[in-house]
Amino acid sequence: MKRAITAIAAVVILGHSAWGDAGEADKIARMFKACIPTNWTVAPAMKALPVRGLSNAIAQFTFTETTKMLGWESSPGRTNTFRPTLALLAFGSARAREIEEAVEREQNHSDYPPLIFCVDAQYVFVTSPGYINRGLHTPEAEASLRDLKEALAKCLVVKYNLEPAGAANPDGSGPIRSETNRPSSASAHEGLRQDGSAAGSRR
């Protein structure tokens, strides 16, 4: 019995350490809800996603588009479908230099490298390529995030560029980047679970 109580206490302490102050997480969630379009939802995640080189986020948030579906061909004749989704981890702005260094240091790793999605005076919001539409980065997948990005840009400074290098101009001119219909990283094939954690993640 004593051992069980000790184990439960350890889980509570570790969980609190991972997510920081619950009141601060609630404040961030309210800010997001006030910004995002009505066709998007946002909810705090139950578990922390792995991001190379960074730990101890204040909180993590999962955004989901409720009116569209995306898909990728997992095998001949079989298509996996899902709703557009984005996961963001919140860090205090005092860690901005640390985060920038982690982005630079880890950018060539395929296993959850950090990527700065947006910032404001208080926070830096970090994602990873596999946490943007489950790692699917076709033009259709990127376009599904455009209204979310535009809405967030009214509240924060958005750093993530939806337009890939070499993409066609709005008038149709210019080259279009060759795309596959599969997620960009093997680690992201299963995307996010319902609780916002990464399927197959290693902790």
Estimate the mean pLDDT confidence. 77
Beta-strand residue fraction: 15-25%
Question: Number of helical runs?
Answer: 5
Give helix % range: 25-40%
SSE-based structural type? alpha+beta
Unreliable residue stretches: 1-18, 164-203
Distance between the termini: 27 Å
The ordered H/E elements are: HHEEEEEHEEHHE
Q: How many domains would you count in the coordinates? A: 1
**How would you sum up the global shape?**
globular
Compute the gyration radius: what is it? 18 Å
Sequence-ordered SSE layout with sheet pairings:
Layout: H1 2-19, H2 22-35, E1 40-44, E2 59-65, E3 70-75, E4 78-82, E5 85-92, H3 96-106, E6 115-119, E7 123-127, H4 139-143, H5 146-152, E8 157-158
Antiparallel strand pairs: 1-2, 2-5, 3-4, 5-7, 6-7, 6-8
Q: Would you write up a description of this structure?
A:
The longest helix has 18 residues, at 2-19. The chain has a six-stranded antiparallel sheet, with helices on both faces. A two-stranded antiparallel sheet has the order 3-4. 27% of the residues lie in helices and 21% in strands. The chain contains five helices and eight strands. The protein has one domain. The chain has 203 residues and is an alpha+beta fold.
Briefly say what this structure is.
With about 200 residues, this protein is of the alpha+beta class.
Essential attributes:
two-stranded antiparallel sheet, alpha+beta, 8 strands, 203 residues, six-stranded antiparallel beta sheet
